[in-house]
């Protein structure tokens, strides 16, 4: 028997609803006793992975309640096991799954709540990089500045939402602190606000700012491929106020969003 075959069988059995074949094949004692013993391992694995998801999506858990969240998390885990030993990045595809759960229950904003939380999580645990600062900006020669090639740092996250997600998450947190059930306080309005968010790391935390559509479009370009500052300036060409582009450049360096290519 190859060890990898045993490991694979154990993984499949410990994360599914049917462990009968595994128990009958690999364990030498009676099936009832085997089930009881194996259930300990299964509960530990599923419980640990659901806790990882709860840590990454705390507002989602508070929004729908712990029992409902854990039930759906177990369903997700059964079909989406970690692919790496490090669990910091486990759950990226939970956003789409939770969006589907929301649609099933006629809550179109659930997926966006999950997306917001994952952007914060991915930003916080994003890869470190040597970013450009305001001090660096002051050293660049004006004549060559336009031709400098830059890109967004890998930890930077961008997100577009339809609903007032930031307000929703704040209300959910307040309700949780007040130990109220149901997540959303009565009287709070969920509106379509069509926001653009920028997430960036600063002082050991993930920060978020709302961006204008033109600035967000420029950030998306920087995230997809390296750009020169001349390319960025062209994206702001239709802005009547030149200060808009100047403020955007200051933001890029002040928040240390860029890496030089």
Task: Describe this protein with a few key phrases.
261 residues, Outer Surface Protein A, domain 3, three-stranded antiparallel beta sheet, elongated
Describe the protein's architecture and organization.
The protein has 2 domains: 1-125, no CATH class; 126-261, Outer Surface Protein A, domain 3 (Alpha-Beta Complex), CATH 3.90.930. The radius of gyration is 23 Å and the shape is elongated. The chain starts with a helix and ends with a strand. With 261 residues, it is of the alpha+beta class. It has a 3-stranded antiparallel sheet. Strands 2-3-4 form a 3-stranded antiparallel sheet. Helices cover 56% and strands 13% of the residues. It contains 13 helices and 6 strands.
Q: How much of the polypeptide forms β-strand, as a percent range?
A: 5-15%
Helix-strand topology string = HHHHHHHHHEEHEEHEHHE
Task: Count up the helices.
Answer: 13
Assembly level: single chain
β-strand number: 6
Structural class category: alpha+beta
- List low-confidence stretches: none
Explain briefly what this protein structure is.
With 261 residues, the chain is an alpha+beta fold. The protein is built from 13 helices and six strands.
Ordered list of secondary-structure elements with their pairings:
Layout: H1 3-14, H2 20-26, H3 31-56, H4 58-64, H5 66-79, H6 94-104, H7 110-124, H8 134-139, H9 142-145, E1 149-152, E2 157-163, H10 165-177, E3 192-202, E4 205-210, H11 213-224, E5 227-228, H12 229-235, H13 243-254, E6 258-260
Antiparallel strand pairs: 1-5, 1-6, 2-3, 3-4
Helix pairs in contact: 1-2, 3-5, 4-5, 4-10, 6-7
